[in-house]
Amino acid sequence: LPGRKVLIVYAHQEPKSLNGSLKSVAVEELSKQGCSVTVSDLYAMQFEPRATRNDIVGRLHNLEEFDYGVEVREAYKRGDLSSDLIEEQKKVQEADLLIFQFPLYWFSMPAIMKGWMDRVLVEGFAHQFPDCYSSGFLKNKLALFSFTTGGSQEMYTKGGISGDIRYLLWPMQHGIMHYCGVKVLAPHICFAPESVSEEERKEMLLAWAQRLKTLWKEKPIDCSPEWYFK
Question: What EC number(s) does its UniProt record assign (predicted)?
Fold first, then answer.
């Protein structure tokens, strides 16, 4: 698969963490396959998660009242988005596969990664109603959410205290990625790494490396409500 391009959007403060190791395993394994791998290490980059008027360079579209969505859409058309956004959009544009690597925070992604979604996936670049879901502008791309949890696998089942893990993934996989047209691969979840032995953590890394070997043969998941909520 030489020539395939992968963007890993990575959100963890500590390179020696399991998330850091999962990111490194992905870089190593995909590079071995001949893929070109780029990492956006959000904490190391001190990525700005807040969506503000600083995202627009030059004159605002409406000087009377600030509407972030309208302003970034118009700035994107004019080529007037801030340089950090242009840089991230270029990485997304070039990528065949987006991997999001993070620890689950409060049933969601960390704020810095949500800020990446808020600021980078601008209307006009990633979607433009009615061009969304199957006709979203990023429709030739794949995405995969790889993350760690605090709770055990049993907790994240339909009968468990935290509910089916797919419910948590609905806003990320369907509401963001699928909305932009991206096809979503099954998530890769490392449950409760802090509660298991060093040996089991090594097995988690091996399982991820193993999956990456055949990743390009996988079929995307169904992003319909029937699949999530049946």
Answer: 1.10.5.1
Do residues 89 and 96 touch, judged by C-beta distance below 8 A? no
Beta bridge partners of 131: 128
Is the pLDDT reported for residue 130 higher than 80? yes
Q: Report how many domains make up the chain.
A: 1
Residues 117-145, mean pLDDT to the nearest whole number: 96
Helices 111-120 & 83-94, crossing angle to 10 degrees?
90
CATH code of residue 135 = 3.40.50.360
Q: In 3D, which of 83, 109, 88 has the Cα closest to residue 98?
A: 88
pLDDT digits (tens, 9 = 90+) for 3-37: 899 999 999 999 999 999 999 999 999 999 999 99
Give the model confidence (pLDDT) of 56-106 as tens digits: 998 999 999 999 999 999 999 999 999 999 999 999 999 999 999 999 999
- pTM score above 0.90: yes
Give the domain extent around 46. 5-229
